[in-house]
Amino acid sequence: MQQLYDTQAPNPPSRAILVGVTLRDSMLHETEESLQELRQLTETAGIEVVCETIQARKVPNPTYFIGEGKVEELKAIVEELEADVIVFDEELSPAQTRNIENTLDTATVDRTGLILQVFAQRALTSEARLQVTLAQLEYALPRLTRMWTHLSRMATGAGSGSGALRGPGETQLEMDRRWIRKHISHVKKELLKVEKRRKVQRQNRSEKIKVSLVGYTNAGKSTLFNTVTGENVLAEDKLFATLDSTTRRVSLPQNQTILLSDTVGFIKKLPHQLVAAFKATLEEVTEADLLLHVVDISHSEAEAQINAVDKVLTELEADEMPTLMVFNKIDQLESEDQMLLLQSRYPEAMPISAQRGDGISELMEILAERFASYGAMINLHIPYKDGKILDLLYKHGTVLDTKYADEAVHVKARIPSRHLKSVSKFAVTDLNPTL
């Protein structure tokens, strides 16, 4: 597919001031932790953080979100530190963003806009770029601020031609809105094609046991995926290293085969636009037989991250799905107290180190036991002339053992109940399914 969009911003800012707000119902340490994560996001976007500031308020100021005195204070800091962007750790309304930009004469972005920019930088495949583009356009439509909207560059890349010319009496703002709506429609059509393609892929895998890795960004999902599959999926100590879902076959100790999928990491205040745009990718989660919820047990806010993941799973309507929690990075624990506390709340959680390999074999054994009853165990005597039956077993079931005799193959296999009729005449044992 021709790449139509440049999702990254031209001339991005380089020096940022971060602004956090402690509201009446929040605690200062929560704001400080969230601001630390905002710093990581900002640095992941390639922007240097030159100052951080927090204001306590009972309620947000409708004009600026922060107080007018704080706005004046920021004006002086911007001039002193030569900052070229203000990054808020809250979602601002379009009016608040414009008011702050006009008063400070400095680009202003909220947490949602920053996350979208990080996703734009991480989007490498055409599918991920389309998904990020849709989220950016829907975010930009009510805002149309000068930062990271970059419509002229995107319009040029999309070959808009005369379609971008201003109509009679049409303002620049109206023209920009018309352009965005047109391209939202176009990107949605392209993503529908992606969704249909993924649906076909999932149907082809419908007979297999599917396991999806979920968790907070940077919890170590991709490292675990690589350790278990022997793959080399990008695994960096950065936020949102993985945007595209990757699926590989994994053999378990009891000769079962599962399909393991690595998925995009979640984060606190994950923009709804991204959850909606990545619907096709995240359906790997909603159609799994089991979710492996990977937790960075060494992180000071591990429980808050668990809650953030649970919140996104609820938004995906996947909160009732079978889930096994995995406490990763046990090798980085400074004290076991936190793990012991969380183990008391999540007693079935598996402690592992995906980096070092600790606990991986035990995790594989638990998965094997969990899936031991999937399908029917069956012994078959298949004449060589009926080799297509063996193909069916390998495609839709799990072949546990084969012995080649003079006239036939003796096979021990586990097969979904719906295929029992196709192989019943070759059976040499009872065909009652175990499920």
Characterize the structure shown.
- α4 (111-122) packs antiparallel against α5 (126-140) and α7 (172-204) packs parallel to α10.
- This protein has 15 helices and 13 strands.
- It is of the alpha/beta class.
- Residues 1-7, 145-164 and 430-435 have low confidence and may be disordered.
- The two termini are 44 Å apart.
- The chain folds into four domains: 15-117, Rossmann fold (3-Layer(aba) Sandwich), CATH 3.40.50; 124-202, no CATH class; 209-370, P-loop containing nucleotide triphosphate hydrolases (Rossmann fold, 3-Layer(aba) Sandwich); 376-426.
- It has helices at residues 28-44, 68-81, 94-104, 111-122, 126-140, 151-157, 172-204, 221-229, 272-277, 279-286, 302-315, 337-345, 360-370, 387-396, 420-423; strands at 15-22, 48-56, 85-88, 107-109, 209-215, 246-251, 257-262, 290-296, 323-328, 350-351, 376-383, 398-404, 408-415.
- 41% of the residues lie in helices and 19% in strands.
- The longest helix is centred in the middle third of the chain and has 33 residues, at 172-204.
- The strands form three sheets. It has a six-stranded mixed β-sheet, with helices on both faces. A four-stranded parallel β-sheet has the order 2-1-3-4, sandwiched between helices.
